[in-house]
Design brief:
With 326 residues, the protein is an alpha/beta fold. It has eleven helices and eleven strands. Strand 4, helix 4 and strand 5 form a beta-alpha-beta unit. Bound molecules: 6-O-phosphono-beta-D-fructofuranose. 6-O-phosphono-beta-D-fructofuranose binds next to loops.
Length: 326
């Protein structure tokens, strides 16, 4: 493998709080180790368009606390065509980039995996998504911040739920994984979480209302994971209204406010560790792996494992939610 002198850095796919902390860590660790840094704007699209500038250490000053990504992000269908990837590789050669650091979620790593199969350029991925749905890492950058945002929102909604003795269905993001819904529910003391991998049937919902909600409590909050195969919070609220017209049911959809805001300390530290580990991996000549954290240790996860299938929730956590919400 040829000597690495310059790394390219990209944020791709959906933004996540802590991406900027990762950009800062990658840039500073690279420069500390004598490497040059080329920042690619607007994700893989920018790689194809040649939207690339050199970064010095001051380019990443005062960004550790900012949500979103200073490099911007955009979907790029073109990167999923051979012509698009060819153009991207030509720009990489023109800019004399020897290795890529890609920061993003499953779509980003999927793109990096295809690219690695065609072109001889090492890529290291840093997992950043609020969904926490990648295999081989205990956490992804942005997940902790989104979880805390959900907790703060539900704490506020609970004031109204309690005062008016209402049943709230609160819809949260998280895609097919359901981690935000499940752990958000545990963290905010919700009574139930409706998640894609453990879809609640109508009779379970009725059971929950009659045994959990009505018998011991006069208000209740259910978190619903938004995903394209479910009707979301509105669907469950309508279902309950049909069967229990006596209940005062409301819906709240948290939406993209869960993706924004200042990253938590946990996400900033995770981003700093992973960013620094990505440069270490490049310098050791490790090609095409995702940086993960497993049992508090940095690990290197092959792309194929990271995105093979959405990470599964631990059913024991659903059990805990049910135990502690009686
Ligand atoms: O991957 C992050 C995420 O917020 C998912 O939880 C959600 O399903 C999706 O992105 C929403 O994407 P968009 O911003 O395109 O609506």
């Amino acid at each position: 493998m040829s000597e690495i002198k310059c790394v390219g850095i990209i944020t791709s796919g959906n933004d996540a709080p802590g991406m900027n902390s990762a950009i800062r860590a990658v840039t500073r660790s690279a420069i500390y180790n004598g490497l040059r840094v080329k920042a690619v704007y607007r994700g893989y699209k920018g790689l194809i368009d040649g939207d690339i500038v050199e970064f010095k250490t001051q380019n990443v000053s005062n960004i550790i606390q900012q949500g979103g990504t200073i490099l911007k992000s955009s979907p790029s269908q073109d990167f999923f065509s051979p012509e698009g990837r060819k153009k991207a590789f030509e720009n990489i050669q023109r800019e004399e980039i020897d290795a890529l650091i890609v920061i993003g979620g499953d779509g980003t790593i999927h793109g990096a995996r295809i690219f690695a199969q065609e072109y001889d350029i090492p890529s290291i991925a840093i997992p950043a998504t609020i969904d926490n749905n990648l295999n081989g890492t205990d956490t992804t950058i942005g997940y902790d911040t989104a979880l805390n945002t959900i907790m703060q929102c539900v704490d506020k909604i609970r004031d109204t739920a309690t005062s008016h003795e209402r049943l709230f269905f609160v819809e949260v993001l998280g895609d097919d994984a359901g981690f935000l819904a499940l752990n958000g529910a545990i963290a905010s003391g919700c009574e139930e979480a409706i998640i894609p991998s453990a879809q609640i049937e109508t009779d379970q919902l009725t059971n929950f209302i009659e045994n959990g909600f009505r018998k011991t409590k006069s208000s209740s909050i259910v978190l619903v994971a938004a995903n394209e195969n479910s009707g979301g919070a509105m669907y469950y609220a309508d279902l309950v209204k049909q069967h229990h017209p006596e209940l005062d049911v409301r819906v709240s959809i948290l939406g993209h406010l869960q993706r924004g805001g200042q990253p938590t300390a946990h996400d900033r530290i995770t981003a700093s560790r992973m960013g620094s580990a990505s440069i270490e991996a490049v310098m050791k000549g490790l090609p095409n792996v995702m940086i993960g954290i497993d049992n508090d240790e940095i690990v290197h996860v092959p792309f194929s494992r990271a995105v093979r299938e959405p990470r599964k929730i631990d059913p024991a956590m659903l059990e805990i939610l049910h135990n502690v919400s009686i």
